Structures are given as C-alpha cells and as structure tokens.
Amino acid sequence: MMFGLLKGLGVTLRQIPKKNVTLQYPDVKPDWPDRFRGVHKFYPEKCIVCNQCARVCPTSCISLSGTRGEDKKMHIETYDINFEICILCDLCTEVCPTEAIQMTDTFELAEYSRDALFKNIEWLAENGRQHDARKGKSDDQANHDAKAADKAGEQ
Amino acid sequence: MAELRTEEMLLNVGPQHPSTHGVLRVVIKLDGEIIREATPVIGYLHRGTEKLSEDLQYQQIIPYFDRLDYISAMLNNHAIVNAVEKAMDIEIPERAEYLRVIVGELNRTAAHLLFVGAYLLDLGAMSPFLYVFMTRERIIELLNEISGARLTYNYMRVGGVKYDAPPGWFAKIREFIPYFKEMYQLFDDLITGNEIFISRVKGIGSYGQEEAINYGLSGIPLRSTGFKWDLRKNKSYSVYDRFDFEIPVGTNGDNYDRYYLHLLEMEQSMRIVEQAIDSIPEGPVMGKAPKILRIPAGEYYAAVEGAKGELGVYIVSDGKDKPYRMKIRRPSFVNLQIIPSLLKDQNIADFIAILGSIDIVLGEVDA
Amino acid sequence: MFEWLNQPFTPMTVLGMVIGGVIVLSVILLVVAYSIYAQRKILAAMHLRIGPNRVGPFGLFQSFADILKLLLKEDIVPAKADKAMFLIGPMITYVPSFMVLAVIPYTATHLFTAELNVGVLYYIALSSISVIGVVLGAWASNNKYSIIGGLRSAAQLISYEIPLALSILGVILMAGSMNIVEIVEAQKNMWFIVPQIIGFSVFIIAAMAELSRVPFDLPEAESELVAGYSTEYSGFRFAFYMLAEYVYITAMGGLAAALYLGGWEGPLLPGWAWYGIKAGLFIFLTFWLQGTFPRIRNTLLMTFSWKVLIPISILNIILTAIIKIAVA
Amino acid sequence: MTEESKETTVKPSAETAVNTETQPKEEQPDPKKEAAQKVLDRIRGLIVQELGDHVLEDALLMKHQPTFVVKRDHWLQTVQLLRHHDALGFDYPEAMAGTDYPANGYIEVILYVYSMNHNELIAVKTRTPRDNAELQSLSYVYQGLNWEEREIYDLVGVKFTGHPDLRRIMMPEDYEGHPLRKDFSVWKE
To answer: What is the arithmetic mean of pLDDT over B241-250?
Structure first.
C-alpha cells in the first residue's frame, strides 16, 4: 500500500548527487544556436530600400525611409524597429533580398522606459557590429552562407 | 434549537490565481466546501486573432498561430499551413512532411510534459514540474536549433518548412530518445504509483463517451473515455499513415486516465519521431508555392491533431491574398465547456484537480 | 546546570532567566534561518538546481536577507479586515511556538530549559493554541480563501492532535513518565523507535499534519487557496506566521528526537550534537517529503485521521500496555 | 422576415457555388469528388424525404465538402434531424462559425458536424439578415455549441433564441459592437 510512496521518495533522493542543470544566468549566458532569432542587426550599406521587410511585417513594427542618391540608387535614411510590438518572427530577414536586416543572438530587451524599445538605425547597426565582433567575422560569414544556402534550397 | 442559517458563498477563482493556467476566471458558488455551480469567465487573453487574420497575408498569419497554444506552436503552425495547402492543393516535398511530423511530435511531447508537470504542481507536488522542465528543455533546445526560437517557432511555410535540419540534428534526437525514456521511467515511478496522487485523481471528474462527443471534446479529454479518436489516424493528414503507432485510450474518463494518457501519448510520439528520423528521405524542404498565396474563393475547413485536441481552421476566401474570414476551432476552448457540468457538486479540493486535467491553454481558449 | 524551577526569585535569577531565554531564542532563530536555507538547498538539489547563492558565500545569508526584507515591508491591513484580530492573529500563533521550546531538552544537562514533570502535556497543550491564531487571522482577513484555509487548518490541526497525543501515549507508557528528560533517560538501553515503531509511524504522519507540511499542507495549499490563511498578510506579520511554522518544525524535530530517537544519547560526539543530528533528520524528512509528494485530498485527510490513525494509535497503546505488563 | 431580405438571402448562394466548382471541371472525374457527391445526394435525399423540399435552399460541394444551405426558419429542425436520424447520426459538432457579408446583407452561420458512425463530415449553414440577426439556438442539440454560439453572438452579433446563457464571452459585458462584423471599427466617430 505504501510502495508507491516509497518509490517516489527513492526517486527524489537519487537526484541529490546528480549534476545541476541550471545556468547561473547573468554570469553564464546561454549558448544559442546559429539560427537563433534575437534582436535584429542592420547593415545600412546593404539596404536598397525595397520596403519588403516593412510590408511583410505582421505587426507593422518596421518603419523606414530612404532617398535616391547621386548614383541613382536608393539609400536608407531612417530605419526603426519598435520592439514593443516586434514578435521576432523572422519574416523580415526572410524576405530581405540583400541580407541587410538579420537577426542576432541578443535576447535581452528589458528597458526602463518604453521609448528605449524604439530602436533606430544607429542602434541596430551598432548591434550588428557588436554581434559580428562577438561571433567573429568568419563565423558570421559562415552563418550568412548557410542562410544563403537555405534560401537557395527554398526556391 | 433554531435552524442553522447557512449561506452560499461566491468564490472568485482567477483571473489571477496560481492554478488557472493563465487568466481563466471561474466563479464558483460554494455550499460549505461543495461546489454548487461553476461559471467559467474567459476572454482575458482575447487578442482577436481571427479578426487580425482578416488583415494579414497567409504567411503573416503563421506567427500569430504560434501564439494560440503557445506551448505547442509547431502543431499550430501545422494547422494553418495544412489548411492553406489543402485549400490550394499544394503538394509539399516529402522531406518537409517528415520534418513537420518530427518537430510536431517533439512539440507534442513537450506540451504533454508541461501538462504533467503543471498538473502535479496544481496538486501540490513541486518536483515533477522541475523534472519535466529538464526534459522539456532538451526538446526546446532541439526545436530552437532547427527553427531559431524556443517557443514561437514560425517554422512551417505554406509549401514546406523554413529550414532543413541543421547538421547533427538527427543525431541529437537519437541521443535524446534514451534520455527521454529514462525520464519517462522517473515520472512513472515518482507520480503514477503514488497513492496520494491516485487518491486525488482516480474516479474523479469522470464523464461518459456520449457526453464527451456531444460536447465536441477532442484530444485526450475525448480519448480518456475510451473513444478511439485521433485525427492522425482517423483523418490521416501529412505522412502519419506511414508510421506505426498506437492511439492509447482510457476507460473511465476520469482525471487519472487523462493524466496517464498524456504519458502514454508521449511514448507514442517518440515512437513516431524514431521512425521518422530513420526513414526521412533526402530532398528539398520547400516545394513549389506561389510567392503570394491566393486561395480560390470558397470555404474550407481542415484540422490537425493539436496537443489539446482537434485544431481546425475554417477559411472563407474571396480569392484575395488575405482570408475573408478565419475561424479557428480551438480544442481548449471546446474542451473547457465541460467544466461547469464536471464541477457541479464536487468538493472544492477537486476543483483544481479537475480543471487541471482538462489541459487548457488560455492563449488558445481566448484566441 | 541551572535548576530554574527551584531557585528563589531574585533579580539575579531573573537576569539569568532573561539571558538564558535570549540565548535559546537566538539559537533557535539561527536554527530556523538555516533550516529554511537547508530546505531551499535540499529542494534545489533534488531538482538539480543551484538554489540560493547570491547573498553571502553559497547564499548562506539568504534567510537573513529575506527576514530583513519582510521586516522592512509595509504592514498592510485590508480595509475590510477586523483590525484588532488581524493584528493579534500572528502573535497568538507565534508566541506558543517559542514557548514550547522550554521543554525541549537538547542536552543532558538541559541548560536553559525547563525540566517539567508534564513536559509532553505542556508541549501538546501549548502547540494547540497556535491554531487559534491561524483561525483568527484567517477570519479577520475577511478573505474567502483565508477563511477556507483557516477552517481547514482548524479541522486538520484538531483532528491530528488526537493521533499525535495517542501515539506519544505509547512512549509515556514505556517510560512511565511525562517528563521529557526522564523519557530520554529511559531510552538508555533501547531507543523507543524500536518497540514503538507503530507509534513512531503514526507520530511522523500526525506531526507532518500538525506542522501543515506536505503532503498535509492544505491550510496553505498555494495552488488552490492562493496562500490560505496568510493570503492577506504581508511584511513582518507574515514573517511571524512563517517563523512560527519553522520554529514548530524545529521543535517537533526536537520532540521526535527526544521521544523516539534517544535524545542526546550517542557515542563520541557531545550530547547537543547528537541531538542536532537527530532533530536534523526529522527536519530533513519534512523537506524530503515536500520534494516528493503531492497534496492529499482534504476529505481523505479527515477520514485518514479518524478512521486510520486513531484506531492504529489506540491499538498501539493496547499493545504497549500488554508488552509492558508481560515484561514486568 | 421582410420580403426584401428574403430575396437577398436566396440570391448569392449560386454565386459562391459557381466559384468553388469551376476548377476541376474539364478534368476526368475526381474520385474524391464523386464520393463526396454521393454523400451529398444521399443526405439531401434523406432531408427532403423527412422534412420536405422547402427546408433546403441549396446543397452543394465546397471542394469535396458536402454543404447544405438551410432556410433560417428550419435551422433547428434540420440540425435536429441530422443529429437524431439513425441513417444520419451526426453526433459530433466540429466547428461553428459566423461570417458577415455586408454586401449581401446577411450573416452566414456555418456548422460542421461529423458522424462518428458513418465517418462523414458535412457542413450545414444558414443565413440571417444582418440587422436583427437571429437564429434558433442549437445548444440543446449539441451542448458543445453553447460557447460557440456565445462567441458568434459576441463577435458577429447573431442572437440565438432559446440559448440558456447568451452573454458576451470574449469582450466585456458592456462592450458595444461586434468586432467580427466587417463594418466594425474601433475608431469611434
């Protein structure tokens, strides 16, 4: 009659010597896989202002503007993502023809004010620089290549 | 002695209550500790997914489906892409179908694991919840690796899936399966045989087959009555007909059956995953699908077996690239309806045990 | 070796009593603080987590940080609460929990503790006062969850006091005394856990219920009743309830060690260390159970007490009496 | 029902029917479609036989899906027949939805019912004028439709007569308007 209870007690006792599975979070950061979808990074020089990302965004959190420069090409001027409503669905990076907008493994988005969640082009570009530095350019290139390969596979 | 004056007490459980799994509110009328009437009040998490869908293209709807039953987002993904593909007669590559099955079944296992943990937490046991999270974490990591997100995957596309499996992914699943079996044994030892647990769930909250069918229940709440009904077998979609798996059913339709079926189903899901990774064909993962999806005008209904039951999508299209009307048949919403009749004349101590066993997710109930 | 009860009532003895009391209480508070820490660490180990680790080395000062936080918090009294009762509730629960410590003989010399002739009776009588504080606080909160929790608490604690007392009766029969020190001394040859194994089982179960620990934590039942009787309490009044609960665990551990495990008896180590180990075992058991079991159903709870535990404990008394006569 | 609204309820059914049946016309007979047609004919026959010709407005295939358009006044009666008739036995309510067609002036309520014995899924629908939208409640036939009807009442604004507990379910009690109607706007003028 008491057998089930004792079995349960045995199970919990057996766990005590086992190795912990949790991370000391702020000291030890999780290691995200390559495809992880965190906060975006943006390469202004790559952008051709095609507006596809803004159009495909389900929550309309991207707003951008650009002007036609001397060389008859469009140049990006402002690029804002509102992370209050961004759902990190990755659709924008999927449609981007030049890979100007990509996702990083930055996942900490807590801010003290809502205004701070409004990320502009400088912030996104800086995030990109930091991410590239962190990952190493070669690593990023590999990631980029893998993504390109994936894209090729899709078509 | 004068007649003792007694009063019924109205107790408002939720929307902020630890065991209502989100923001469900149940107003219960108590006579002592006996529930005389229970009225669920929902809508606290209503985000208007159906209305939002009317303004979104089909590929944009997929991330919204992630957020319905957010603990089994892969299966939700499957529901919407399956519905659109059926409506448009899109064939998808075999490999994509297999990948869908694999991620779907992994996600189903994760969702069932969470049920087991949360249910035991409702019943006052803390440890199973954490053991469940340990196991679930491995699955979430696998899904994170293939889709890039831990919870809201947005992985499936009309015409296939977004990514092929990363290198070494199948090997990792193969590693995971023995670990899962070990943990499964642990849950079985820790929970299933526990006399205290059994006394709280056995024979409590039971209903019959006919009642279940009349209420339109699906998934485990229906199967717990012994009715063999699983869309993966009964209305086979995707490539489920190629795998050898069982549909476990209960006998009494009580809390215990509902709990135990979750365990048994996880085992079957892992069986499917095992077979699928052994027999997955090579090839592309994205088939031919138009860039802008337009469903021919008409009305379509297609359902898949979600983690909670039949997850159906009804689309009215007027030929444009956005649905004219979309109705989501959310299993949690339908299953929750049986709660008032189940709770009537039960002891309040069983309230949480019954509510928890129905396995609802409020994101899905309120949509 | 102080004979408190036989000393003349002079300023010096009063000072001695006060100093003794303060020392015992601080030691107990320390024990309580670290049993909370131990609880969290043990549960964390069972869950393969790390547990508290931020305040001090290995989180050793976590409990003090918690207490400090609770003391600094605003003392909120709900607008519709019965204010006087609401404020008194925690005291009524808390004061007896410290008073029972007077009869726990943690050393052979029972330093600073009273060698009471009716020690067991004193413990049971005082500890049952605490439930009044719980019910009072619950009722005064004017919260439905609190009332249900409080009434459950009353029903449970009253029901389980009987098997608890009856199971101790077996020990009293064996030792022939209600003085806890004499009970310990009667175990020189054999710990009472051996002849009183049935009584011990009943005692452990009833003790868990008396302490409202898992699997009998119905009065609090956080997944059903939010926090039961303490739902509306915050700040240091809440701390008093919690403190009372943990002091009782320590005291009950001490009682179990004294009644069944031979008290301070043991080789090599000093008496108080043995006492600590034995009481610690009991405390570990409560946390172990907490890490393993779900909560019992409340209807079953009553049935279990009246239909299972009480008959068994009565049977135990009869058996003990028969054995005692047979041996004599 | 006014004379005018009656007219509008009848007309557009043909239009939707045409839309869905155009694609596979030229091809060889589709076995799936033929099977569905068989089911459609059999059930239509049974309904007509039991309740007469006048209850059905239309019976058509919506891409392999037998669909019956029932007149509003015979809604409950028809569904009851579908539920209780031995040869039909549609005992499992799968889904129910209301759709607003402001252009046509009606709201369409569709019900998918499944027969566990015969393994058949059919759709039954009916139409009610937009203003003063009202339908007989099915919640006594299928208990599972209780909340579905409340949801349709809440979001589309169809009143179900005879419903035991017709309250708003998603929106707050004092909410005005029905969000899933096409002319709904959150921006108050």
So the answer is: 88
ipTM computed for the complex: 0.82
Chains B and A make contact, 3+ CB pairs within 8 Å: yes
3-class SS letters over chain D: CCHHHHHHHHCCHHHHHHHHHCHHHCCCCCHHHHHHHHHHHHHHHHHHHHHCHHHEEEEEECCCCEEEEECHHHHHHHHHHHHHCCCCCCCEEEEEEEEEECCCCEEEEEEEEEECCCCEEEEEEEEEECCCCEEECCCCCCCCHHHHHHHHHHHCCCEEECCCCCCCCCCCCCCCCCCCCCCCCCCCC
Q: How far apart are CA B138 and CA B132, in angstroms?
A: 10
The distance of B154 to chain A (nearest Cα, Å) reads: 6
Rounded to 5 degrees, φ, ψ at D90 are: -80, 90
Nearest CB to A20; choose among C49, C288, C292: C49
Residue D75 lies in a domain: yes
List the CATH number of the domain containing D148.
3.30.460.80
Note whether C238 and C192 are within 8 A (CB): no
**Residue B181: which domain range?**
53-366
**Which residues in chain B are closer than 8 Å to C300, comparing Cβ atoms?**
199
Total domains in the fold of chain B: 1
| Domain harbouring B131, CATH code | 1.10.645.10
Q: Is residue D10 part of a domain?
A: no
- Asked if the structure places residue D40 within a domain, the reply is yes
Calpha distance C265→C66 (Å, rounded): 35
Overall pTM surpassing 0.90 (yes/no): no
Q: Name D97's bridge partners.
A: D110
Residue B330 belongs to some domain of the structure: yes
Tally the domains of chain D.
Answer: 1
pLDDT digits (tens, 9 = 90+) for B145-176: 888 888 888 888 888 888 888 888 888 888 89
Residue B1 lies in a domain: no
Residues of chain A whose C-beta is under 8 A from some C-beta in B? 1-5, 7-8, 10-12, 15, 21, 32-37, 56-58, 87-91, 94, 103, 150, 153-155
- pLDDT per residue as tens digits for the range B248-306: 888 888 888 888 889 899 889 998 998 888 888 888 888 887 888 888 888 888 888 88
Pair B163, B155: CB distance under 8 Å: yes
Q: Residues near B363 by Cβ (< 8 Å), separated by ≥ 6?
A: B22, B45, B67, B68, B69, B70
